Amino acid sequence: MTPAWQRLEASASSPVKRHFLHGLALLDRTSYYAILVAMGMMTLLVSAQVFSRYVLSSSIDSADELSRLCFVWAIFLAIPHGIKVGIHVGIDALVTYLPDSLQQLLARLMAWLGAALMAALFWISLGAAISKWQELMPTLPITAAVFYIAVVVCAGHSCLHLVAQALRLEPLPSAPERYEGASS
């Protein structure tokens, strides 16, 4: 197995591109673990709520809201990982009939357009998070903006992956090393 630094050297010819890919891989890895934490917390909260409600005949007031928050964060953190590998909805009925060079040009153009849209979403959701900052969640003393912050993070992370695709930079693996060779 090739070490990550050698894959990085092979992936980008300029130092700026190497640093960009390295930073993106670090962001991917951090996001990967944050998804695991959010999913684990959601599972524990829902399990504790079910146990409390049906065994103890009481309820955890904030369990529904916290589990919803964990679900939202897990979903929005996972979206850029799908964009990175091209697992997103697309209709290619017409594109498949185009020549390969035109398909590649169109793919780069769409990646730039997608990056621009994600940058706009980042800016708009940042404004929404700022405007919601004073509002608190009903059962917790936490700002309601945490839901919007998930969108901010998703849009920024997705924008970076779309820029990498538009520049034809091959993403570095972001899964932990021990799982990379598990399929062989």
UniProtKB/TrEMBL annotation:
GO BP terms in the entry: C4-dicarboxylate transport
Entry keywords, A to Z: Cell inner membrane, Cell membrane, Membrane, Transmembrane, Transmembrane helix, Transport
A molecular function (GO) term: transmembrane transporter activity
Spans through the membrane: 32-56, 68-89, 109-130, 142-164
Domain Tripartite ATP-independent periplasmic transporters DctQ component: 42-169
Its membrane topology: Multi-pass membrane protein
GO CC list: plasma membrane
InterPro entries: DctQ (IPR055348), TRAP_DctQ (IPR007387)
Summary of subunit composition and partner proteins: The complex comprises the extracytoplasmic solute receptor protein and the two transmembrane proteins.
Main function: Part of the tripartite ATP-independent periplasmic (TRAP) transport system.
Record-linked PANTHER family: 2,3-DIKETO-L-GULONATE TRAP TRANSPORTER SMALL PERMEASE PROTEIN YIAM (PTHR35011)
Family classification: Belongs to the TRAP transporter small permease family.
Official protein name in the record: TRAP transporter small permease protein
Native source species: Billgrantia pellis
